[in-house]
Amino acid sequence: MFDTLIGAQALRAKRSEPGCVIVDSRYELADRGAGYRAYLAGHIPGAVYAHLHDDLSGPPLTDHGRHPIPSPSRLRELFCSFGISAGVQVVTYDDSSGAIAARLWWMLRYMGHDAAAVLNGGWSAWVDAGFETEQRETRNLPSPFLGSPRDDWLVTLAQVSAAPLLLDAREPARYRGEKESIDPVAGHIPGARNYFWKENIDARGAFRPKAEIRRRMESVYGSCPAGDVVCYCGSGVTACVNILAAVHAGLPFPRLYAGSWSEWCADPARPIATGEG
Questions:
Q1: Is the pTM here over 0.90, yes or no?
Q2: 3-class secondary structure, 19
Q3: Residue 221 near residue 181 (C-beta atoms within 8 A)
Q4: Is residue 93 helix, strand or coil?
Q5: Residue 190, in any domain of the structure
Q6: How many Å apart are CA 228 and CA 45, to the nearest integer?
Q7: Is residue 63 part of a domain?
């Protein structure tokens, strides 16, 4: 079973086995249709498509951020439509170093499906290896998905202030409040530390070695127990990359504040910090 990352060679061998579902999750914030068009232009054979806004986000349930986590019932419907049932190995990929694929990975793990992995290096790793692609759209036969949510993995707005350590996954300039191109207010949640999600990624677009990721993360954790970390970002998407990286590196599963900065900064009464601390 693969439960964090999988390489292109291993996926090529795995996908021909019974009980493997591949999900293409390519997406561009600036053009919501770009990922689907890229999927139609070419994808890993047998892959179905998941759209960040339409499939991996839903009406507010636990949060009111820009990309709310769908309800458990909606996630069951979605995973059923993908053909995911107990024991099925799921592999998801994107073309942005796991920025979107990690969100789907987290959602599967949150719903109790542990056989979920992200293709390390994403679409580029598959293409660069010279492996076959296809252009026709794939739809799997529905399969019963009976998973239940791990509710304690989510941190709500009311719980944020009590978190021992908040880890902000956004780029440093946004964290420091020097610029903000998406949300109406710049800055970060007071007390949060910055660990840019791309710190986990090497020059090839693949995840760094486990030991290196662990060393980088622990230097930011400081004296805070690793099991007490709460991750957030702009809208609960790239924070999942930090969660995936932590688990892959052998650290405890951080919790997720899915509402993230987009929810926190929506109320002008909430405190905002700028700069490095």
A1: yes
A2: coil
A3: no
A4: strand
A5: yes
A6: 40
A7: yes
